[in-house]
Amino acid sequence: MFKDKKVIIFDMDGTLIDSVGMWNKTDETLIKKFTNKSMDEFFAENDIQAKDIGQMRDSILAKCKSGDIYLEYCKWLKEKFKTDTQAEEILKLRWDIANKYIINEVDYKEDADVLLEKLKEKGYILALATTTTKDRLDIYKKKLKKADISELFAVILSKEDVQHKKPSPEIHNKIMEKLDVTPEECLVVEDALIGVQAAKNAGIEVVNMYDKYSDSDREEINNLSDYKVKNFKELIDILDREYRDVP
Question: Crossing angle for the helix pair 53-63 and 69-81, nearest 10 degrees?
Fold first, then answer.
């Protein structure tokens, strides 16, 4: 898995940190506020075929072409809410709700910080490829004390750094250009389908880090991923074993 690799590229939400559930709760709170309906009622009323709110959100975001995909998402919500509230106001409210969850709930997944430190010690270059905003990333940096994001990652690209979001390979292509490496010298660690697709579209091998919130896309994720792990402990064991086996 790690043989001949120079750069390990990580996604943030759902991969390094336990945050996808937080975003699901944020959107559930938002939908309840504007419609006073349960998710099942909201899905049925709008003929939404997604299996869960995370899959619904990812499918909408993947179709957004503008610079601010989250504003486009809120425009879509505004239409479904049948409200006079502007999309910009809905977006602000969404961030306000999310910030409360971030402050109270967000942290590294178990052993994620341990793996990052081990990779850094062994000389790998670490990169972060996230579709979250710089503002949200700044909050994460303050919250995640166990491993300093700014010190660990040589390159950090967020939503504002690219025109085309995952599953486009643009974010990975930019990282490779900055670090002057080839796809064969990189490895991506991702949890969600659109992230796995982005890595494959860039020609990079991808490790799927299991996250329960991606179960609705599990079959397709498994078919596309080069490697699959249940947690960071498993990834650490693979790294240690590979280095023990080196002559």
Answer: 120
Non-local (6+) Cβ contacts of 241 within 8 A are none
pTM over 0.85: no
Q: Read off the pLDDT of residues 21-77 as tens digits, 9 standing for 90 and up.
A: 889 999 999 999 999 999 999 999 999 988 889 889 988 888 876 668 889 999 999
pLDDT digits (tens, 9 = 90+) for 168-225: 999 999 999 999 999 999 999 999 999 999 999 999 999 999 999 899 899 999 999 9
Q: Are 106 and 143 in contact (CB under 8 A)?
A: yes
* Paired sense of beta strands 7-10 and 205-209, if any: unpaired
How do the domains of the chain map onto residue ranges?
7-18+108-245, 20-105
What CATH code is assigned to 7-18+108-245?
A: 3.40.50.1000
What digits encode the pLDDT tens for the residues 195-210?
999 999 999 999 999 9
